[in-house]
Design a protein that fits this description.
The protein is built from eight helices and seven strands; from the N terminus they run E-H-E-H-E-H-E-H-E-H-H-E-H-H-E. By secondary structure, the protein is an alpha/beta fold. A seven-stranded parallel sheet has the order 3-2-1-4-5-6-7, with helices on both faces. The chain binds NADP nicotinamide-adenine-dinucleotide phosphate.
Length: 254
């Protein structure tokens, strides 16, 4: 369903070049949104996703911006300001597994870096977005969707406590933000994907691992990026107007 507002609504999506983020960008474009999205290194993937947005008749701006880098995130939001002059939604999508390390071997630098990329980045982006969208700061309100993971519930793959715990933080962050940001005209929700067939699994066994674990998911298979993206786009848009502080599983029952 196309969003019916004056002018096209605008979303910032982190990590929109590949995987779930790219699928979110395209789902939003199909629903009439203009996009500003980041990537960290894969220019070709970012430009391919942007071209698909333009083929859908929507506008796309791409920005190389490591989500762990606050200055880069400022550039991402400034690019949206410059291109569109408005912001209606933030999708905090970019995230990494951070390798496979027993807690016995994980070092401080690794843990700090992982939490900066998966958790602090979402704080930074919410600050940038909320300052623009808050009705108390002259904005018109909006929505925020955070990507968590089913790992927050079940503890994740072996030797990935760092990843599971970082996503547990996103669940708590989402619930707390919903309380704090409602008076600012902002809805905040999270999506917890289960086993989704993307390149993120290159960190721990690749598509072979997805093939092996897929049949153990209650629904009988791994999910697709598009199946997650449709839920994210729904939460970003006006059709989910009474959903707030929800952490939604898209996990095939896992
Ligand atoms: P993916 O296929 O690995 O894609 C990651 C995307 O994020 C790419 O666009 C990548 O950009 C970007 N990215 C990675 N590190 C970044 C950084 N430091 N700064 C900015 N962008 C960065 O991952 P995915 O599977 O789509 O995962 C998306 C989100 O869903 C993550 O938060 C992940 O934790 C969560 N999730 C995924 C699954 C799953 O099974 N796939 C399950 C649960 C939760 P480049 O193209 O430039 O590398």
């Amino acid at each position: 369903m196309t969003v019916q507002v004056e002018g096209a609504p605008v979303a910032v999506v982190t990590g929109g070049s590949r995987g779930i983020g790219a699928a979110v960008v395209l789902a939003l474009a199909r629903q009439g949104w203009d996009l500003c999205f980041s990537y960290v290194s894969n220019v070709a993937a970012a430009e391919s996703t942007a071209a698909q947005v333009r083929d859908l008749g929507r506008r796309a701006v791409t920005v190389q911006a490591d989500v762990a880098d606050r200055a880069a995130l400022a550039r991402l939001f400034a690019a949206a300001d410059q291109a569109y002059g408005r912001l209606d939604a933030l999708v905090n999508n970019a995230g990494i597994v951070g390798g496979v390390h027993s807690i016995l071997d994980a070092d401080d630098a690794h843990l700090t870096s992982l939490f900066r990329t998966n958790v602090l980045s979402q704080f930074f982006c919410v600050q940038e977005a909320a300052r623009r969208m808050s009705t108390q700061r002259g904005g018109r309100g909006g929505s925020i969707v955070n990507l968590s993971s089913a790992a927050a519930r079940h503890g994740g793959m072996p030797n990935e406590a760092h990843y599971a715990a970082s996503k547990g933080a996103i669940d708590s962050f989402t619930v707390a933000l919903a309380k704090e940001l409602a008076p600012h005209g902002l809805r905040v929700n999270a999506v917890r994907p289960g086993l989704i067939r993307t390149d993120i699994h290159d960190a721990h066994g690749g598509q072979e691992l997805v093939d092996r674990i897929g049949p153990t998911v209650p629904i009988g298979r791994a999910g697709t990026a598009e199946e997650v993206a449709e839920v994210v786009a729904f939460l970003a848009g006006p059709l989910s107007g009474y959903m707030h502080g929800a952490v939604v599983d898209v996990s095939g029952g896992r």
